[in-house]
Amino acid sequence: MKWSNALGIPAAALAAVASYDLLQRRHALLRNFPVLGHGRYLLESLGPELRQYITTNNDEERPFTRDQRRWVYASSKKETNTFGFGTDNDIEFTDGYTIIKHRTFSDIAPSAVPGGGDTLQLPSAKVLGSARGRAKAFRPHSLVNISAMSFGSLSSAAITALNRGATAADCLQNTGEGGLSRYHRNGADLVFQIGTAYFGCRDEDGRFDLDRLVSLVHSAPVRAIEIKLSQGAKPGLGGLLPGAKVTAEIAEIRGVREGSDCVSPSRHTAFHDVDSMLDWVELVAAETGLPVGIKSAVGDSRFWESLIEEMTHSDRGVDFVTIDGGEGGTGAAPLVFSDAVSLPFRSGFARVYSMFAEAGLTDGITFIGSGKLGLPDNAVVAMALGCDMINVAREPMLAIGCIQAQKCHTDRCPTGVATQSSWLEHGLDAQAKSVRADNYIRSLRRDVFKVAEACGVAHPGLITASDVEVADGNRRATTLAELYGYRDGWGLPGLADRDEITRLMAEYAEGPVGETGSPDAQTKPGTTGTTGTTGTTGADGHR
């Protein structure tokens, strides 16, 4: 009797499911294959996880391969981030494979210690805002900085972890267009981003409010202002924060309605063309004293032509230009925009930089790259093309716990990084993860610096477009300079900046010698190097 009861309950449940499947009209599969058809939907829902952990090799996954994630996870935990037995990349037959050319002899002697340089200070080769005489011009302490990620898109714990990590690594954190929250006030220097909705500096009607901007930047350690024109993953669209993520706190910070989709306009209302934009840039710079720049994906070249024309024939201009590649990340975007709108970073950046170089304007502008540049080889290519700094976003997300579940738009991020669910966010310990963010930034800077040493130069900003080749399998290889039509000197800082950064790096090399035996510079006063756990890191970092 007991066995019959035990079997009867699941049998009745299956019969109920079968009856429902046969009567429903939404899914032909379930009407034709009741009960069994649900297995197909289960496998479909588990597809990303099955591919990630079982069926794909080390270099197949996107946006980040298993090897790339493994390097980030290991670096963030201070574990061994070297790889054995040689590359498993298909170097011989892959079209477009990047090769960095080392030099046999150089005045710059590379360190023999793989871990040397963790605490080395690696500043920008240019002083941000100096060319235009901004009152608060400064030399960024780090050429690697945390890119724009808003509170709302990321959880409060994630923003806190990144801010504390940026403090320890002595790098900048971009607030993203979602405004400046209390979670951004944990010690790091900030770049305040102004998007099309003017969150944090808007009036009750959603219009830009200069007084509120001035008050806000004076209340926090804001070092520069970035005007977001477009984003690589969704150019031509405003920011999108699904209503599930719009909590009462976020609604208050942004000045929007709680629980409703927060969609920013696709274009600015404070200006309508390049001429009025530059007037606005100069107004904001004059009132705040801060360097002011723009962030944009690359599409139609007429915008850049107009900007260069205006900057050439007037005394107005931007202090920095951030170019975002089409391969960049986002929390939510229509598939066609993330897949097919705007140029990828390399071709987009090279096109814009060449236009500024033709006009002789590059020395007075700091160029910043973003879009999957948080891996050493991609970062080196960006520096060779002319970037003075790089912004990283998804890679530090991986460092603090992201497992590439691609649930950012659902508010169900399993590791608490990209969610406003208090239950999911609870799993992310901001203090512990801040150490990992710090470790990751330091590891990336160290590896990029070591490549610069191998190339025989004192600083990554001195790597040239001729130092990197793009190979088409075994057939031929073309330098970046040839590929993108760069002339001699393009991609490099001006002579004065080259001399100064070489002098600074020589001074740092004469500083204290670290435990590994490599010359290391002192860290920012009040901060120290960090150590993480030891052990083995899997492809998902065992988060």
Descriptive account of the structure:
By secondary structure, this protein is of the alpha/beta class. The chain has 2 domains: 3-54, no CATH class; 95-510, TIM Barrel, CATH 3.20.20. Helices cover 36% and strands 10% of the residues. The chain contains 18 helices and 13 strands. It has helices at residues 2-23, 28-32, 37-45, 47-55, 66-76, 156-169, 210-218, 248-254, 274-288, 302-312, 335-340, 345-358, 376-385, 394-399, 422-425, 430-454, 480-484, 495-509, and strands at 95-100, 144-146, 173-174, 190-194, 222-228, 240-241, 262-263, 292-296, 320-324, 366-370, 389-392, 468-472, 476-479. The protein has an 8-stranded parallel beta sheet. The protein has a 3-stranded antiparallel beta sheet with strand order 1-12-13. The chain is globular and about 85 Å long. The two termini are 46 Å apart. Residues 526-537 have a biased composition (Low complexity). This is FMN-binding glutamate synthase family protein. Pfam families: Glu_synthase (PF01645). GO terms for molecular function: glutamate synthase activity. Belongs to the glutamate synthase family.
